[in-house]
Amino acid sequence: MSQTPHLAESIIDGVATLTMNRPEARNAMSAEMIQGLMEALPRLAMDANVRCVVLTGAGSAFCAGGDVKGFAAAGDGTGASTPITVEQRAQSLRGGFEVARMLHEMPKPTLAAIPGAAAGAGCSLALACDLRIAVDTAKITTAFSKVGLSGDYGMSYFLPLLVGHTKARELMFTAQVITGEQALALGMINKSVSAEAFPQAVQIMAAELASLPTVALGYMKKNLNASNTLSLSQILDGEAQSMARCFTTEDHKSAAQAFVEKRAPEFKGR
User: Distance of CA 39 to CAs 4, 88, 104, Å?
Assistant: First the structure.
């Protein structure tokens, strides 16, 4: 279990919650936090007892992105104490970016629970999740252009998929700050609720995801992710393979029997 000062983890009723835990810095990302996420996500992906992963932030923010104060102190985006080349810097950054891929490709549903500010790489991490729920007044921004940076953690991949290329360019170029309610209207998030209703709404959404046929959802994710780049013929091939595997699962067999008996299925994630 990943328990560091900058990342907290809990598992309750099949829902694993990873909490970015630097509330004094609006949960700005640190090397310790990134390392914790890189350790936790593959492990949770393999844990049969985990059927949904929630990513959230402590306090009133989701994640303010990179630690800009640290960047300024170090003079670059890595925190290195000595000068490094562009190639070295890119290699150092790229390792951490795997967190976004893990959230996107994990064969289980991932949910970003956004209690407040989601900026820069923090916004990217939210977009990397399958679903997003936010407080209606949460401030969401790409942020990168405000500090002379181009974007990371998959921002340029996920944002156009959600809002289209034209709007993605506007949001990235201008770093416009939008609310959770506005993000919902744009299709960036799935649900917007009041701050008072937020904790219960997250719990209900996560519990529903954890109650679904986990194996089937994993194959759904795989097929949907592939649809961005593959031809229809290739997608049909993949769907056939996924369906064939799902037919062998305990969840399918029990759900088929429940259908015959006219009762609601109870999925076990197997």
Answer: 11, 23, 16
Residue 103: left if φ>0, alpha if ψ -120 to 50, beta else—which one?
A: alpha
pLDDT tens figures, 205-225: 999 999 999 999 999 999 999
Residue 7 per-residue DSSP state: E
Rg (the chain; Cα; Å): 19
In the structure, what pLDDT confidence band is assigned to residue 73 with cuts at 50, 70 and 90? low
**Antiparallel, parallel or unpaired: β 139-141 and 178-179:** antiparallel
pLDDT for the residue numbered 4: 77
Phi then psi dihedrals of residue 11, to 5 deg = -130, 115
pTM of the model: 0.92
Q: Does the pLDDT at position 3 exceed 70?
A: no
Phi-psi region of 85 (alpha: psi -120 to 50; beta: other; left: phi over 0): beta
CB atoms closer than 10 angstroms to residue 49: 10
Instruction: Kindly list the distances between the CA atom of residue 214 and the CA atoms of 24, 48, 264, in Å, as whole numbers in the listed order.
Output: 36, 9, 16
Which residue type, as a one-letter code, is found at position 211?
A: S
Q: How many angstroms separate the CA atoms of 232 and 227, rounded?
A: 8
- The token pair that represents 248 in the structure block: 């062998």
DSSP per-residue letters across 54-70: EEEESTTEEE--B-HHH
> What are the structural domains, with CATH classification, of the chain?
7-210 (3.90.226.10), 214-260 (1.10.12)
